From TrEMBL:
Interval of the full protein contained in this chain: 82 to 327 of 327
Protein name as catalogued: Bifunctional ligase/repressor BirA
Gene name linked to the record: birA
GO MF entries: ligase activity
Superkingdom of the source species: Bacteria
Function as written in the Swiss-Prot or TrEMBL entry: Acts both as a biotin--[acetyl-CoA-carboxylase] ligase and a repressor.
Keywords: ATP-binding, Biotin, DNA-binding, Ligase, Nucleotide-binding, Repressor, Transcription, Transcription regulation
Domain BPL/LPL catalytic: 1-182
Its EC number(s): 6.3.4.15
Similarity comment text for this entry: Belongs to the biotin--protein ligase family.
Gene source species: Geoanaerobacter pelophilus
Length: 246
């Protein structure tokens, strides 16, 4: 990963650029980085604010030989890579919130957006999109723009983070994790995800579109679903929703 890196001053979205390049045959491991994005994409069609000079916006093309239903396993991979990079580059302790948020002191510091091109049986390619707030001063943003409390490594750690070093460390961790994933499958990375997310055995409240329930987290399955045991003994497989610790 990172044997070919395209660095752009400005683009609409590094995910869109990487997706287009992958469609045109860009090899696995191709990375696209931009200093700023004019239309950074968040999950659920939201906008990812992407001011210049302070953060990391990057996208990585992967071509794993897996089925589309297994692609969420790559989300575990990027979450764990970001958590490791934060630990190597700062003294901060990142927390993981299912399914793929990375928080520090309860505030969001990074976001992940994977986009995939697949047929029924097999994945052609996946673009891992990773945005990390490194040296953003939150006071420069109007909080009204933010849906959830957000922060940056600088705000939480009090120290500037070297953007190039952070990027290098992140790509190194991704490369390592992806190599292990190809050999050993998703077991080890899922175990690390679970250990870091600190929700196993905890009571949670799950809020879905038209339903809310409480239960105890048993783990995650290999499709990325959260397994929650209800008080009546049924095991719920949660594929989407908002999960709050009780
Ligand atoms: C989220 O909603 O939490 C996901 C945010 C993902 C943002 C990153 S920044 C780099 C890449 N390019 C994009 O347009 N989005 C992702």
């Amino acid at each position: 990963i990172g044997s070919s890196i395209l660095c752009l001053k400005e683009t609409d979205s590094t995910n869109s650029v990487a997706f287009k390049m992958a469609e045109e045959g860009a090899p696995e491991g191709t990375v696209v980085i931009a200093d700023t994005q004019s239309a950074g994409k968040g999950r659920l069609g939201r906008v990812w604010l992407s001011p210049p000079g302070v953060n990391l916006y990057c996208s990585v093309v992967l071509r794993p030989a897996i089925a589309p239903v297994a692609a969420c396993q790559l989300t575990f991979l990027s979450v764990v890579a970001v958590a490791r990079a934060v630990e190597r580059c700062t003294r901060l302790k990142p927390q993981i919130k299912w399914p793929n948020d990375i928080l520090i002191n309860g505030k969001k510091v990074a976001g992940l957006l994977n986009e995939m091109n697949a047929e029924t049986e097999k994945v052609n390619f996946v673009v891992l999109g990773i945005g990390v707030n490194l040296n953003l001063r939150m006071s420069t943003l109007s909080q009204g723009l933010l849906r959830h409390p957000a922060t940056s490594l600088l705000e939480e750690g009090g120290e500037e983070v070297d953007r190039i070093r952070f990027t290098r460390v992140l790509l190194e961790e991704l490369d390592q994790l992806y190599g292990d994933f190809l050999v050993e499958g998703d077991g080890p990375v899922r175990a690390e995800w679970l250990a870091r997310s600190a929700i196993k055995g905890r009571s949670v409240k799950v809020s879905q579109q038209n339903r809310e329930f409480r239960g105890v987290v048993q783990g995650v399955d290999s499709f990325g679903a959260l397994l929650v045991l209800l008080s009546d003994g049924t095991l719920e497989t949660v594929l989407s929703g908002d999960v709050a610790l009780l």
